[in-house]
Amino acid sequence: MPAGDISFSSSKRADLEGAIRAAETLSRVEFSVFVGDTPEDTAAYARRLHGGLAAPARSVLIMIDGNRRALEIVAGSYVRRTLTDAELEIATIQLSTDLAAGDVHGGLKRCIGLLAEHARPQRVLHADEEPVEA
After folding, report:
1. Quick one: three-class SS letters along 35-103?
2. Is the domain defined by 10-119 classed in CATH 3.10.310.50?
3. What are the structural domain ranges in the chain?
4. Which InterPro entries match (predicted)?
5. Averaged over 65-84, what is the pLDDT?
6. pLDDT-derived band of residue 122, with 50, 70 and 90 as boundaries?
7. Whose CB among 57, 59, 65, 100 lies 3.0–4.6 Å from 78's, allowing a Cys bridge?
């Protein structure tokens, strides 16, 4: 993970906001990203930030502190119905790898997309329906 202050240009910030909107549309889950300095207990701080969101049960928070080299992902109770611990771990490992390579922007986009794909509601096929071809 890159050490120090992490900042984004206005175009990269807009690109991340677009990725968040697309992820929210796909998954019907709210995504938030916090990049900045945190207190020493990063996990507790991430949980507090997540708890302060408008709808924490339906939200995912991704928090990165470059100075502490910390990464936390917090998912609410509703999100956890479809997003497993293994899927959260895969997203964390992927983002950690991207951060280690210095690709904060791309890593966040990939992480948000991956989490949205796994958090989206599952399609239910009833016994009297025919499968729909994509």
Report:
1. ECCCCCCHHHHHHHHHHCCCCHHHEEEEEEECCCCEEEEEECCCHHHCCCHHHHHHHHHHHHHHHHCCC
2. yes
3. 10-119
4. DUF5130
5. 94
6. confident
7. 57
